[in-house]
């Protein structure tokens, strides 16, 4: 029972089922297309072999631009999002990105999470 992350390079049935638990409108074909997109990056956090958080990002020069950052409701406020952010920042730095860019949002919960991390939406978070 350990929280871990991995960069997705292959689609599994478990991945599709877990990601659809986050967003029922997400279709398997969309997941496959995003993973196969050489400009994209999917990083997942798992706990007990279940996906509990993920982030989709797109490579934009020296900036890694986050398109989605999701944590399952039942695992929120337990450090999963912070852990995923730390792992993403480490991976981005390792891959020579200079900054992360988080999407704009109106969600109070997401804005609170951004504040907790010291992030300003649509501004670059320097690595």
CATH class label: Alpha Beta
Taken in chain order, the helices and strands follow as EHHEEEHEHE
| Percent helix | 25-40%
| Total discrete domains | 1
The CATH superfamily is known as: Gcn5-related N-acetyltransferase (GNAT)
Tell me the number of helical segments per DSSP (H or I, 4 or more residues long). Answer: 4
CATH names the topology as: Aminopeptidase
Please state the structural category: alpha+beta
Dominant shape: globular
Distance between the termini: 30 Å
Task: Jot down its keywords.
127 residues, alpha+beta, Aminopeptidase, 6-stranded mixed beta sheet, 6 strands, 35% helix, globular, PanZ_GNAT, GNAT family N-acetyltransferase, acyltransferase activity, transferring groups other than amino-acyl groups, transferase, Acyl_CoA_acyltransferase
Outline the structure in words.
Pfam families: PanZ (PF12568). Keywords: Transferase. This is GNAT family N-acetyltransferase. GO terms for molecular function: acyltransferase activity, transferring groups other than amino-acyl groups. It comes from Alginatibacterium sediminis. The protein is an alpha+beta fold. It is 35% helix and 30% strand. The chain has 4 helices and 6 strands; from the N terminus they run βααβββαβαβ. Strands 1-2-3-4-5-6 form a 6-stranded mixed beta sheet, sandwiched between helices. The protein has one domain: Gcn5-related N-acetyltransferase (GNAT) (Aminopeptidase). β3 and β4 form a beta hairpin. The termini are far apart. The mean pLDDT is 86.
